[in-house]
Write a structure and sequence with these properties.
Largest sheet: 7 strands, mixed
Low-confidence stretches: none
Structural class: alpha/beta
Strand content: 15-25%
CATH architecture of the largest domain: Alpha-Beta Complex
Length: 375
């Protein structure tokens, strides 16, 4: 089969397109899926470059919360996989053959449904979807019929973004009526957060570039704040919230902005009815942040570090997709053989970028990719 293999940590030159990779075979409890589309995520780049240090800020490493690294080379990346079951392993009903589905991307350490303490995922600890075929757990490849959704659109709603977003919210206990500030609002997790806030009845305020405002408002943002103008940021927030503090921040940016985000929650504690909550699942603005701890403990700011979600959350998201409550935000599709170009475009994306990029095998391109090709 055709596949792109990651040969080691480094630049895009470490991604090698091959056409002679053996097709994997499903084992017990597994299905063989013919991949039709796989969404790109920032974690693909970060894993390739080894940007997941947990002690030494200069360390080149990958996920290893289970005690040892699981990323070995060569590895086929790609976590958010859509496709169709073409074969089943032992213990899986043949009635699954032909079903279209979407992957819950987690590699779970156990059967617990409510917690996931050692996160790993397909495309990192096991081969993913930047290929024509992939073997996946049957119970994590969820059937989604929804004929109104193209496969590329289904992949754009993949769990890597949506489950991360939902887990940010469940960790912080977001409730109906609460004001939620979403940083990095134009990316996959950000656009998912806006939609999910509306589903649960919360009020999302987006932080993004000014030229994304119209699209984000249409998606459900109550207001859009310009991330290129952070001067007097709390006053700008007050202007759109009618002087009320933000209840919780969903932070995908980090760096020096995080301190300003905290300001939006604590400027008038007498108005609050809950503790200020900061849910963190990214650091696109910098991996190091300087914060006075007195600001954290005196104002009782609760901080939640978020990586991957749980089985329960994945199943809830699939139900919302099936019911049409979640909508795809698909930016463009690229051929699998053009993954280098897709990586470069993703890293250097311009002001017109909103939502997800998907990768489509060349053999599926005419049907699944061409309608969403970059123009």
């Amino acid at each position: 089969m055709a596949a792109v293999q990651l040969m080691g940590h480094g630049g895009v030159d470490q991604l090698v397109y091959k056409t002679d990779v053996p097709v994997p075979q499903p084992g017990k409890g597994q299905v063989l899926v013919q991949v039709t589309a796989t969404a790109k995520n920032n974690t693909d780049r970060k894993a390739r470059e080894g940007l997941y240090p947990t002690k030494d800020k200069g360390e080149v490493t990958s996920f290893q919360m289970g005690g040892s690294p699981t990323l070995t080379f060569p590895r086929i990346q790609g976590a958010d996989i859509a496709g169709r079951v073409v074969a089943v392993g032992e213990g899986v009903s043949e009635e699954r053959i032909g079903q279209r589905g979407l992957l819950d991307f987690n590699i779970y350490a156990n059967e617990r449904r409510d917690i996931n303490l050692t996160p790993d995922y397909y495309g990192h600890g096991a081969d993913g979807g930047f290929a024509e075929y992939v073997v996946l757990p049957s119970d994590q490849f969820h059937e989604v019929q929804n004929p109104e959704l193209a496969d590329a659109e289904l992949a754009a709603m993949g769990m890597c973004s949506y489950q991360t977003a939902y887990h940010m919210m469940t960790s912080a206990g977001i409730k109906a009526g609460e004001r939620v500030l979403v940083s990095g609002a134009s990316g996959g997790v950000g656009t998912a957060l806006i939609q999910l806030c509306r589903i649960v009845g919360a009020i999302p305020y987006a932080l993004s570039k000014k030229d994304k405002a119209e699209a984000l408002l249409k998606l459900g943002a109550e207001a859009v704040l310009d991330r290129s103008d952070m001067e007097d940021f709390t006053e700008k927030v007050k202007a759109v919230t009618e002087g009320r503090p933000i209840d919780a921040v969903m932070d995908l940016v980090g760096g020096e902005m995080t301190d300003a985000f905290i300001d939006t929650m604590i400027f008038d504690m007498n108005q609050r009815t809950t503790y200020p909550r900061l849910s963190i699942a990214g650091a696109s603005g910098g991996n190091l942040t300087e914060i006075m701890w007195t600001r954290i403990y005196l104002y009782q700011v609760q901080i939640f570090g978020v990586s991957h979600g749980t089985r329960e959350e994945a199943e809830q998201l699939v139900e919302w997709i099936r019911s049409g409550q979640l909508k795809p935000v698909l930016h463009a599709a690229f051929k699998l053989s053009e993954l280098h170009q897709a990586e470069e475009y993703f890293i250097n994306r311009n002001s017109n970028y909103l939502g997800k990029i998907v990768i489509v095998p060349d053999s599926q391109w005419d049907e699944q990719g061409q309608p969403f090709a970059l123009t």
